[in-house]
Amino acid sequence: MALSPNQGGNVQLSIGTTDYFVNPDGTTPDGIPAEMAPYPCGAASSNNTAAGGENIALAPSFVLNPPVYVLPGQKWSMIYTSSQGIGAGGGNEGGTAAVMVSYTLYDGPDSMIANKLLEMGVAVSGSNVDWYKQQLLEKSIQEEVQ
Question: pLDDT, tens digit, for every residue of 28-86?
């Protein structure tokens, strides 16, 4: 995920009534800061220069680790907040903010396989879903041969 590198911008992932980013004391912050995950990837923010004026390297995007699984029926959202607002352009046309979220949707039989992988304690990924399908096919073929 990534967001517009506006100074004071943050994004929080919320699943149901639970926020993903939580402080050690249990309080909920506004999320990760824009400078930590700029969008478009590597974009300069309004405050990414060092004392000498040189640009500070920015992260290409933010990867959730461990990964987050949103189960069927759960509602999720990305909540953008800004402590300094979003500045208007020179013609007073208004500013913009953007948040990018990359995710994989498993539906149909793949969603059942993804749930089975979670039950097994195996990470859900495209390659692991394909591996499980292969295991099912091999088992089916062996049963037909016997």
Answer: 888 888 878 777 665 655 554 444 555 555 555 677 777 888 888 899 998 888 887 77
pLDDT of 137? 93
pTM of this prediction exceeds 0.70: no
C-alpha distances (whole Å) from 25 to each of 28, 29, 122 are 9, 11, 30
Task: For residues 142 and 136, give the distance between their C-alpha atoms in angstroms, rounded to a whole number.
Answer: 10
Residues 86 and 118 in one domain: no
Give the burial class of 50: count Cβ atoms within 10 A of its Cβ; 0-12 exposed, 13-18 middle, 19 or more buried: exposed
Range of 73's domain?
1-103
Tokens at residue 109, please? 């039989």
Are 77 and 139 within one domain? no
Shared domain for 69 and 94, answered yes or no, is yes
